[in-house]
Specification:
By secondary structure, the protein is an alpha/beta fold. It is built from 11 helices and 21 strands. It has 3 domains: 2-58, 2-Layer Sandwich (Alpha-Beta Plaits); 66-254, 3-Layer(aba) Sandwich (Rossmann fold); 272-392, TPP-binding domain (Rossmann fold), CATH 3.40.50.1220. Helices cover 24% and strands 24% of the residues. Helix 5 (142-156) crosses helix 6 and helix 8 (291-300) packs parallel to helix 11. The radius of gyration is 25 Å and the shape is elongated.
């Protein structure tokens, strides 16, 4: 772990370090630079110091007392005036992980108007809902939101913190992990909690060629971000339970140098992650025009269409249509892959689909290892035949 140190004998009191710190963690006292508890060891001050008086050290972190860190905290995200679905998915997984260890599952809500969503979360089995609701939190500001989440973590001391792998979550989680000088595993596809409270964070690594098991053994809390549509959301309970705790805003919200000048809502866009039926074209397609039959089949089935990464790289479709680690994670009721080999980068982002039909000429294609129905045939024979039968209404 990193640590900032000041060599007073070299300090000239120029003040450049103070001006460079984004956290207000370093200042001058008696003509010398001094650090305070707000330091995040980012190293900006060390880079700004012309005399080499401020240095960044890498230190070995001693193991924490794991018994003092208990429970699971879920960051529940408010997105475009709605509770993001990944929030309840994470709560569902947290409840599953917590049960064997007798852990409590809590959640935190941050934003202007956040209290309106707290009552809904009481129907999903969490014990406590920590709410930070104030006009000062209108519009996402990473440092201000991180200050609120940090306050909830310091209050509850959870062993595990789960955050959605969304645009907001990917900005928030690294800031929090840095503040607690602990580890973070991004884009997890599986999570397991050992009896000793170590979280096994499983995600594809080395370009998706292996599934890595990552453990934060010596520090707490353990941070992990999880993609939307990977975990199962719990059923909404008819009776509400759990305590809503309204928290005052921490100092970090008020000292934030970021100000929201204006915002504009982007037009709503349909996402392949929300589709119940998907037809996917892969490397087996010979030309871009052949995507038309993929789109036609999807339309006849009342679904949407998608592609694997090779077709995005060819420029045949945009990234918003891609399934995979560098695209979207999907979990439809039915997915039909056409000419997709099924590399782990792709398979790990669709293998939880309810019904998987794979069409490929190669009987050894990896996609067949996750498919429920394997069709070893030429997609140029199967797909047109399917389209014709759907148009005729024949089985």
């Amino acid at each position: 772990m990193a640590k900032i140190a000041v060599l007073e004998r070299k300090c000239t009191g120029c003040g450049l370090c103070e001006k460079s710190c984004p956290f207000g963690a370093i200042g001058l006292s008696g003509g010398k630079a001094h650090l305070n508890e707000a330091c995040r060891a980012c190293g900006a001050c060390a880079k700004a110091c012309p005399s080499g008086a401020v240095i960044r050290l890498e230190t070995r972190t001693e193991s924490v007392d794991k018994s003092k860190w208990r429970g699971i905290l879920v960051y529940s995200e408010i997105s475009a005036g709605h509770l993001h679905p990944v929030s309840t998915e994470l709560i569902g997984k947290a409840l599953e992980l917590a049960a064997p260890l007798g852990y409590e599952v809590n959640t935190v809500l941050v934003g202007d108007g956040a209290h309106a969503f707290a009552e809904e979360l009481r129907h999903y089995g969490v014990s406590k809902i920590f709410v930070y609701d104030a006009p000062e939190l209108a519009g996402f500001r990473a440092d201000a939101y991180a200050a609120c989440a940090e306050d909830a973590i310091r209050l509850t001391k959870p062993s595990v913190v789960l955050v959605g792998s969304t645009l907001v979550g990917r900005s928030l989680a690294p800031r929090l992990a840095t503040r607690f000088h602990t580890g973070l595993t991004a884009d997890c596809t599986q999570l397991e909690l050992r009896p000793n409270s170590d979280l096994v964070q499983i995600r594809p690594a080395f370009g998706g060629n292996i599934m890595a098991q990552i453990i934060t053994a010596n520090t707490r809390p353990q941070f992990a971000t999880v993609r939307y549509k990977v975990m199962d959301a719990p059923k909404r309970r008819q009776e509400a339970s759990g305590e809503i705790i309204c928290r005052p805003l921490p100092k970090g919200v008020y000292v934030s140098p970021i100000r929201l000048i204006s915002s504009r809502a982007l037009p709503a866009r349909k996402s392949i992650s929300d589709a119940d039926v998907l037809v996917v074209g892969g490397r087996g397609l010979k030309k871009q025009a052949d995507l038309e039959m993929i789109r036609t089949l999807a339309e006849l089935l009342g679904g949407d269409w998608a592609v694997s990464r090779p077709l995005v790289e060819k420029g045949w479709a945009g990234n918003d249509r891609q399934i995979g680690l560098s695209g979207r994670t999907v979990r439809p009721r039915l997915i039909i892959t056409c000419g997709v080999s099924g590399a782990i980068q792709f398979a790990s982002c669709m293998n939880m689909s309810e019904r998987i039909v794979a069409i490929n000429t190669d009987p050894e294609a990896p996609i067949f290892s996750v498919a429920h129905i394997a069709v070893t045939a030429d997609l140029y024979e199967v797909v047109p035949d399917l389209i014709q039968k759907l148009k005729e209404g024949t089985p």
